[in-house]
Design goal:
The complex is a heterodimer of chains A (318) and B (338). With 318 residues, chain A is α+β, with helices and mostly antiparallel strands. Chain A contains five helices and 22 strands. Chain A has a domain of 130 residues. Chain B is mainly beta and 338 residues long. Classes of the chains: A alpha+beta (318), B mainly beta (338). Strand 1 of chain A pairs parallel with strand 1 of chain B.
Chain lengths: 318, 338
């Protein structure tokens, strides 16, 4: 197997992408004593990348995505609708018990949404870690990162919460709100909501293994009014100067989605991006990627906040 | 290459060997990440099979010598999540400060019961442990209530059960990639499955709906040489015995040899027994050698020789103190060809 990043560096888990066997061969074949020739060649694909022919066609005007999964930790309804999850949580949680509190409703609602996403992402060939809970107590941790423990009042006055990675590096999250947190080697999404005196609810997901060219449905997580992105691997089957890519999306409403192609060598580097109108129902967005050599990349698809949507498949030819 | 050696190419690192692949699919059809050991570049199939068998058939003569006072707690690392928490290895010692931190207006409406303070205290201890453990290695941790919202870390998940139910049965159910394990109420236990290792701890909380649990999953085992202290996290123990969680290491000889000398230091606040076992890196359920060490108060040095043919293989080391929260930390661990 060939990967773009080491699994664990400084105790921090990377979002790994399985690379095709041919990736990097040209660099290895060149005399790389200074690295300059190899570096030039290795970056030329990304630098010369152009996106052409972006087009979306509506396949159906009905929003009825099939193949969604449950969280497998609760018996919540299988849906992308967070209000249905919230209604279920209100009915299920014994809030009249003395050791239960109202903030557990949004925390549970977000938990089931993110765990269902995790299961769908795993089915599609990737791996993802997620969690939601009270930020100060009991604390929110996933395999990759945690929320720094802060009282709701402190988060409220600063207007932000903080994600901390195991090496001590931090990133801020608008509060209330959500942020996509990208580092050179990790892909994460976090939100802060339900801010009270002591407790605020934090939710977090981190990609562990990218799902490359997924062909099973994966929801976009809708968490406290925000809709998070999906990250999938754009993995050509062989070296080429032209890739034809196709993304099928079910969307509950017409919306504008943002597409970002990120470098598989450094996720924080957006190579190209574009926005595209997505109609209500099922639609297919196609585009061509042209470069001196199209490298494996990461596609981030960002729906509009508050929308419900499902990525049915993403294909790359060749 | 070998069914026990998995080769990966990683950009910037070249080829690396592991005892397990990055991911596998469990019997329920879901993918999971096994606990992995990085293997030295010199290992081959014979070392991973015949070498392991040879260790299993030999006895190990361990010497232990007290060398100093126990290392002070200030050598331990802070939690990233709770940077103001004191450097304690037993969560029980942090409980008071977490109880005092709750605002008057939040008591009883947001912070509802002691289970939240205990979960936070255990989160702080486990997070600091995870930092000590992570040196190109990783253990994932989480704490909270299994009922609402849920307690899960990756493929390790406590089944949704109320505190009352856990109390009446006397155990909680931890789901793992290899099926379920029963975790005793008000205590904990390590889980050694064939290719994944974790820890579960649970307290029903004394009759309410909520309980408070802790879960850890070893992702990549910390490998020798280990030069900084790694605590033994003490969980539960609020009215019962403290559950002391084990450390699990990758004893990885960097040179091929039929003879290796192993040495490690361990600190304890009082005399305590520690189970010291080698497990099969090809199947963590198999204990291939086991010793019980009586560790005196202070810091002690443990030494022993190992011999195997064709070479002493990489081994999974389980260091598991008896419950009670006395054993503080493993302070170093090395293996050297003779």
């Amino acid at each position: 197997m060939k990967y773009n990043f080491d699994t664990v560096e400084r105790g921090v888990q990377a979002s790994k992408m399985e690379m095709p066997d041919w990736a990097g061969r040209a660099e290895q074949a060149l005399p790389g004593s200074s690295g300059t020739v190899a570096d030039t060649l290795s970056s030329s694909g990304e630098d010369t990348l152009k996106i052409r022919g972006v087009n979306t066609s509506q396949d159906s005007s009905t929003y009825n995505p099939s193949g969604l999964m449950s969280s497998a930790v609760k018996d919540e309804p299988i849906t992308t609708d967070p209000s249905r999850h919230s209604d279920w949580a209100e009915d299920s949680i014994p809030l009249d018990e003395p050791d239960m509190a109202q903030w557990m409703v949004p925390a549970t609602t977000q938990t089931v949404m993110l765990q269902a996403l995790r299961n769908e992402y795993i089915r599609a060939g990737g791996s993802l870690t997620a969690g939601a809970d009270g930020i100060e107590k009991p604390g929110v941790s996933t395999k990759s990162a945690s929320f720094k423990a802060q009282k709701g009042s402190e988060i409220d006055s600063n207007g932000k919460g903080h994600i901390v990675f195991k090496d001590g590096s931090e990133a801020s999250v608008s509060a209330p709100g959500a942020e996509t947190i990208i580092t050179e080697d990790s892909l994460n999404y976090a939100s802060v909501s339900n801010i009270q005196e002591d407790i605020a609810v934090g939710s977090l997901y981190s990609v562990q293994n990218l799902a490359n060219n997924p062909s099973d449905p994966i929801r976009f997580p809708t968490v406290s009014g925000n809709t998070g992105p999906l990250f999938v691997g754009h993995k050509p089957s062989r070296p080429s100067i032209l890739n034809r890519a196709s993304a099928t999306i079910h969307s509950k409403n017409a919306q504008t989605a943002e597409f970002k192609l990120r470098s598989s060598r450094d996720y924080s580097r957006v190579i190209r991006s574009f926005s595209q109108e997505i109609p209500k129902g099922k639609s297919t967005t196609t585009f061509r990627a042209l470069a001196l050599g199209v490298d494996p990349m990461v596609l981030e698809i960002n729906p509009q906040d508050g929308t419900q949507a499902v990525l049915t498949d993403y294909s790359v030819f060749p | 290459m070998s069914e026990f050696i998995f080769k990966e190419t990683v950009a910037g690192f070249g080829e690396q060997l592991f005892n397990n692949p990055l991911s596998r699919v469990s019997s329920d059809g879901l993918g999971y990440r096994p606990t992995r050991m990085r293997l030295p570049s010199w290992v081959d199939h014979n070392v991973m099979t015949e070498g392991v068998d040879d260790i299993a058939s030999a006895s190990i003569d361990v010497s232990i010598e007290r060398i100093s006072e126990a290392r002070p707690k200030n050598i331990l690392r802070d939690s990233n999540i709770y940077p103001d928490a004191a450097k304690e290895y037993n969560a029980k010692e942090l409980l008071q400060s977490f109880q005092n931190s709750t605002s008057d207006t939040a008591t009883g409406t947001e912070v509802v019961g002691e289970w939240m303070d205990k979960s936070a205290a255990e989160h702080a201890v486990l997070d600091a442990w995870a930092r000590e453990y992570g040196r190109n290695s990783s253990v994932s941790i989480n704490t909270g209530d299994p009922f609402y919202p849920n307690l899960k870390i990756g493929s390790y998940s406590f089944r949704e059960e109320s505190g009352n139910k856990i109390a009446s049965r006397g155990s909680a159910t931890l789901e793992t990639p290899d099926g379920t394990a029963q975790i005793p109420d008000r205590s904990g236990k390590p889980i050694f499955n064939k290719d994944n290792i974790g820890i579960g701890a649970m307290s029903s909380g004394g009759g309410g709906s909520q309980g408070h649990g802790a879960v850890a999953k070893f992702e990549e085992l910390a490998e020798t040489p280990i030069q900084d202290s790694i605590r033994f996290p003490g969980l539960k123990g609020y009215g019962s015995d403290i559950f002391t969680a084990p450390n699990v290491f990758n004893q990885a000889p960097d040179e091929e040899s039929e003879q290796q000398k192993v040495s490690f230091n361990i600190s304890s606040n009082s005399e305590q027994d520690v189970k010291f076992a080698f497990r099969n890196p090809n199947d963590y359920t198999q204990t291939i050698s086991e010793n019980s060490l009586t560790v005196p108060e202070g810091t002690s040095q443990v030494e022993f020789q190992m011999a195997a043919s064709p070479a002493v293989p990489p081994l999974t080391t389980e260091m598991n103190p008896n419950n009670g929260g006395q054993v503080q930390s493993a302070d170093s661990y090395s293996i050297q060809a003779q």
